[in-house]
């Protein structure tokens, strides 16, 4: 039997909806487990991504930690995949790009209703926010895209089945949605 | 004997005065387009309908059909050009499909699906554009305007009102409303106007109708845009 493909996944500025959708492949996960093993992923709770065959990135890039994580994935993954609307075009988090970052922080932490001891968090351990939320292809080279908000479980299954079988991944019309 | 042109090796008839797009639609041949509607004067702005005519690229919606034309509509190069054009439209505006009421019914999205477009390729502009929700029945989200001029043409040619115009150039190009305040509420647009319903994207929306049909059961969730467009446009073709 061929060696298992090593897969890493992460969520940057996303809602984890794409990961939840990945789990929607349901019992097919058992078949998938015969062909792949997981490196860094919410399933394994490994902190850093090691050498992998496939990296699945959910979410856009909104802070300095996202940039480091994304670059680590690009360095270690033979095939990097932008998963979902946020990774592809910034998605809903990028709707803050229409406002100044300072205004966003003030709205959340200073002017918001019911706040006590209002202050903008400034702990040095917190990653610095970027002015804009970026799709991941603006930071690193991306090999494939899985559109959707989120892409359905069938999209994950179709894409991974193609890769496992050594085929060029392609999605039939009925699986391509931007919403 | 009728005059003919050839599209992708298929000989089709045309009449004097018809454009390549007119003849193609009449022959049930889909050429991707966004700014074209057979009910209105061609505008030639979106360039999605670029075809190759005897070795030269041109817009099918404005180029007249002429005897002896050998037209290529489907080729890898043209498909790639059309995909890049569509990607440019996506990055130039702010098209966040999951947050748009028009999703699934949007022609921009429909064309992107048709072209098997999975990403936006270019860096995003993230331009700061406003929304005009002042009118009781109609909403404009300028983030989604692709400057196709269809609302302008519909308002002029069908509604005889001149509610809309495109103003400015390049990055400053924007849709303007003919009213003393520039707001839609102070214009003479009415919910039943053609201009209120013709937008191919989610830029002009009718309020309180967005979710009557659930996401997943909408136009382009079920059918490709070529079938939808030909069924609609062939039936009503001819000005």
Automatic annotation (TrEMBL), chain A:
Q: Which GO terms describe its molecular function?
A: 3 iron, 4 sulfur cluster binding; oxidoreductase activity
Q: Which Pfam families does this one have?
A: Oxidored_q6
Coiled-coil ranges from the UniProt annotation: none
- Signal peptide bounds: none
Which cofactors does this gene product need?
Answer: [3Fe-4S] cluster
Domain of life, source organism? Bacteria
SUPFAM superfamilies xref list: HydA/Nqo6-like
| Gene3D superfamilies referenced in this protein's UniProt entry, alphabetically | NADH:ubiquinone oxidoreductase-like, 20kDa subunit
Indicate what this protein is called per its UniProt record.
Answer: NADP oxidoreductase
Automatic annotation (TrEMBL), chain B:
Domain 4Fe-4S His(Cys)3-ligated-type, residue spans: 77-116
Q: Which UniProt keywords apply?
A: 4Fe-4S, Iron, Iron-sulfur, Metal-binding
The reply to whether Metal-binding figures as a keyword in the UniProt entry is yes
Keyword ATP-binding assigned: no
Any one GO molecular-function label of the UniProt entry: metal ion binding
Q: Where is the 2Fe-2S ferredoxin-type domain?
A: 1-77
Which SUPFAM superfamilies does this entry report, sorted A to Z?
Answer: 2Fe-2S ferredoxin-like, 4Fe-4S ferredoxins
Q: Tell me where on the tree of life, at the top rank, the source sits.
A: Bacteria
State the similarity comment: Belongs to the complex I 75 kDa subunit family.
Protein name per its UniProtKB record: NADP oxidoreductase
Origin organism of this chain?
A: Methyloprofundus sedimenti
